Amino acid sequence: MDKQDFLKEYQDTFKEPGKDVFFSPGRINVIGEHTDYNGGHVFPCAISIGTYGVYGPREDTTVAIYSANSAKVENSKIITFDINDEQPQSAKDEKWVNYFKGMLVYLKQRGYKIDHGFNLYIHGFLPYGSGLSSSASIEMLMGNLLKEEFNLDIDEIDLVKLGQKTENDFVGLNSGIMDQFAVGMGKKDNAIFLDCNTLDYKYLPLELGDYEIIIMSTNKTHSLAGSKYNERVQECEEAVKRLSKKLNINKLGEIDSETFDQYTYLINDDTLIRRARHAVSENERTKRAIDAMQKGDLEELGRLINASHVSLKYDYEVTGKELDTLAENAWDQPGCLGARMVGGGFAGSAIAIVKKSEAENFKKNVGKIYRDKIGYDASFYDAEIVDGPHTKEFPES
User: What percent of the chain has pLDDT over 70?
Assistant: First the structure.
């Protein structure tokens, strides 16, 4: 689809011309899963699959939002609220709007002037519940749209922080900052090595040579806000509470595996030890993966990615049959260096680093195994690494 297609969809919905088209990417995380809210390191990047929004101003104080994706649902409708209404949408079929509404509410609470309503047409290409950060894509779309259309003097990292606050406080998911950071701060052909404890970051070229990243979607949707995600957060917080009786720490990302092993007696609970062990070891794996990539040792990078999945499966228990089927069968394919689940888990997506010459056979083989074992098809995507939603320029097709 091109720009005119989106403008036509807007006009068909709101019966008037739209003004501007915005794009916000999704994200994948090469390695560093469930480390962000544990104060560890991550290595994500923004991808060319994402969310488009068409904006049109109104003269009243009403915000009217329509999603092309909801059009597939019976009784889809335009959802409206007033710009001064600070309460989350409570109706079951309207809760998705809270990812947009929270950004507006928090910007206004900080004194930014948003003095009239608008229409917003949304068309997302990230499968819902795919683990590719559709929610962060929406939040950062809304933040950048409001920044541009209302001339708000706010930098991208502050928008990123408001995106996380929207997720945590307005939606109710106790997530870390990685997703919003990766989307908002994305840079073409680069991944971001981010310390989630300090927000220190640097861009590193994602140089894979003869290899590429293939995204594998289970096509089984999940809702992190209604999953065991918050439970994992609480388990790690409890482990920190017990460790802090002897260690001066606030997050698991502050300690290494040797220290953790010496003080596991303070935790003294099988489940909590496994949860904390994943957070600590994954943080170390991420730093080792950066070293491997910078040395050009893609085979070591692949092994660390495989180890990440194993830890997420056995210690953190957030994979499941669908994700395990994709990742573990990817390992057996010619030309695959590594594969693992990405995102919060509990279904969603996985990634694999695959030799370009083997990519089509890889998709065919893993796809057949998945269909035979699970009973329906997985989807495979080749995504480019792109910039975040920093301008109103429509991305080239």
Answer: 95
